[in-house]
Amino acid sequence: MTERKRQILQSAQAVLKKKGYAATSVRDIAKSLEMEPASLYSHFSSKEDILKLTCFDMASKFDRAIQEINTLYFDAEQQLRMAIREHVQILTSHLDSAIIFLRDWRNLTGESFSEFVEKRNSYEKGIRKIIQTGIDEGRFNESDIKFATLTVLSSVNWIVEWYNPEGKLSPTQIAEKLSNFILNGLIKNKL
Amino acid sequence: MTERKRQILQSAQAVLKKKGYAATSVRDIAKSLEMEPASLYSHFSSKEDILKLTCFDMASKFDRAIQEINTLYFDAEQQLRMAIREHVQILTSHLDSAIIFLRDWRNLTGESFSEFVEKRNSYEKGIRKIIQTGIDEGRFNESDIKFATLTVLSSVNWIVEWYNPEGKLSPTQIAEKLSNFILNGLIKNKL
DNA sequence: CCTACCGATCGGTAGG
DNA sequence: CCTACCGATCGGTAGG
Description:
Two copies of one chain form a homodimer. Chain A is an all-alpha fold and 191 residues long.
């Protein structure tokens, strides 16, 4: 990927996150770059190509992170805290892409769609494995494991809806709060 | 609203939830009803009109539920459990509308957009109030209250992504699991 | 990266 | 609820 292509991709992502993939035209993207719509096609083969690159790029970032964590020795609680920290880190440091990745992947078609879903399921499995370990260790509640996994992921992914890079909470602080919430719940410890 | 209009609306919602508002054409909607695209306009003034009706209809359901709960005497834990139960009930019993409501509200324009955001914030405030009560009662952890509210809502809303009406979990069971998760967290009670 | 352009499809209207 | 139709915009190509 050339420097210019990366530059165009970034500008495109900034536009796409605002109105969503389906409601954004190739002309909208071109305008943000002050170029003609037709010129985009010397860098990308189609509008969907931009979506595809964005979604798969994010997916592989998450994939790399979970693979690494899953092979580390820490106990389940530490693993989960690390996974959440990494997840928040990826989301917040690529906020435009993250929003497209989370909202617009359904617009992928054909093989891209199914391949994406597969990658997403594989990541989900990585998280599930951590929670399963916690249950096996007797540290986590024996809850419906699929249910627990989805609930963890939903609360982590939701941060893109309100995260503000100039806000008072750093990604690390957000990750810690989120981990505490997920691990300990809302109710005060009855010691 | 005539019976026929409601019927058309329902069919439209079934189509909209599949591809999303922006990617669905008026022709797609008409086809699902075996009528001509132009005929839709004797029931609706525009494509956005359908989105507007769907979003605001859902919003008012949530609004009614939270208003009621907020005036009841139960303590914060009970209130939160009730709010979650009602929320899950509304989502699952209007699944098509719920998905459109959650995913496509950003496509509203002008006044509709701002009015919707306002309604959504007001519901959020209702949930926040319950959590605040819990903190005041000394029952809930003193966490960032806005943060806690958003995390609760995200995990509840996520159920539309995996809920299956024919699955083994009833809405009531889902609500209870979710409440337990949110209140007690993943970690086993160290008694 | 641009000019020039294409066929297809879009949301919507007029008139019955 | 339909026929007939509209101007605008869509994603994308040819050729330079």
